[in-house]
Amino acid sequence: MQRANERFVERLPLVLPHPAYAYLLTGLFCLIALGCRLLAEGFLPVGYPFVAFFPVVILSSFLFGVRPGIFATVLCGIISWYVFIPPRMEFALNPAVFLALCFYGLVAAVDIALIHFLQQANVNLALERERSRVLAENRELLFHELQHRVSNNLQVVAAMLALRTNHVDHPQARAALDDAAGRLALIGRISRTLYDPAEEGQDIQAFLTRLTADVLTASGRDDIRVSVEAPPGLTLQSHVAVPLAIIVAESVSNAIEHGLPDRGGSIAVTLQDSSGALSLRISDDGAGLSPGFDLGSGPSIGLKIATALAAQLKGHFALDHGPQGGVVARLDLPAGAL
Fold first, then answer.
1. Rounded Cα–Cα distance for residues 155 and 152 (Å)
2. What interhelical angle do 301-312 and 171-193 show, nearest 10?
3. Domain range annotation of the chain
4. Integer distance in angstroms from the first to the last C-alpha of the chain?
5. Does position 195 have pLDDT exceeding 90, yes or no?
6. pTM of the model
7. pLDDT digits 0-9 by tens, 15-63
8. DSSP letter at 231?
9. Residue 287: is it exposed, middle or buried by C-beta count within 10 angstroms (0-12/13-18/19+)?
């Protein structure tokens, strides 16, 4: 309703099919005001000849513009002078009548001028609003195109690294190239997922669901079930999304590769919010940690990256034994991290 009123005001003054219609409607308003003034004759004290005609001047100027407003001013002034200013039914002119007509004309002129300037300002505001809307659409389009190109470039680099592994004979170098290609491809997919030009944040439940499904698809495994549980309505800002996504992706990939390398199983991603402090758990029912495992001195580059990104978010990342076997990757973030 409010937006409909704004759109109506933005169209003022009205553009009628023919200019004469504005003057005809203005004349009709003047006759209606005359009828109302005659009906109120017995209730009003002596004087007030213009009291019913000022609204007509304002309404005509508001709806049809300056010229119909001037026309209403002149017509209503003539009617008031002839019908309600003594001696009635004649155009008597004396200093008192002349002064009253001058004050009437001055007040009407001020009303018309104010309405005109307000409508001009409203038109300029509508033009600026439309210009801002076009700029916002262009910004969103350019942002989408940039996000698309960045994602495509990352995917191209990942594909080039994957092709390069075909010409590498050293097992460790091949594994390193495969690992780098996989991470670049993952970041490219995350970049595409994080398209959010309005910066309103993404629903973390939906984001983690898409991310874990993407990682599972990339692994080529169909015998592993991944579940995601997160507080409803919790949003994720863009500056946190990439490091958090990489941590989750590394943990899920690690659970698939090391915890469940040769059998099916389940992976549970659980996020809990405690007064703004977040606790993320990625648990599996796999083989568990090897004896003497040390996160800080382990050979896994992915886990080292996860630890560094957790520190970047002012949080803490760790791997623990699961209560019923398997591994629990734990990320604790302080209040306000997201």
1. 5
2. 40
3. 2-134, 213-338
4. 36
5. no
6. 0.52
7. 677 889 999 999 999 999 999 999 888 888 777 888 889 999 999 998 8
8. -
9. middle
For residue 208, the tally of other CB atoms under 10 A from its CB is 25
CA dist., res. 232 & res. 13, Å (int): 48
How would residue 287 be classed by pLDDT, with cut points 50, 70 and 90?
confident
Query: Does the CA dihedral 32-38-43-44 come out positive or negative?
Result: positive
Amino acid code (one letter) for 327: V
| Tokens 């001195």, located at residue | 297
- Residues 73-82 have pLDDT tens digits of 999 999 999 9
Question: If you search the block for the tokens 């990625």, which residue do you land on?
Answer: 282
What pairing do the DSSP bridges indicate for beta strands 265-274 and 202-203? unpaired
What are the two backbone dihedrals, phi and then psi, of residue 263, each rounded to the nearest 5 degrees? Answer: -155, 160
The pLDDT score that the predictor gives to residue 176 is 75
In the block, residue with structure tokens 């309405």: 115
Residues whose CB falls within 8 Å of the CB of residue 10, separated by 6 or more in sequence, listed in order: 122, 123, 126
CATH number of 213-338: 3.30.565.10
Q: How many helices (H) and strands (E) does the chain have?
A: 9, 7
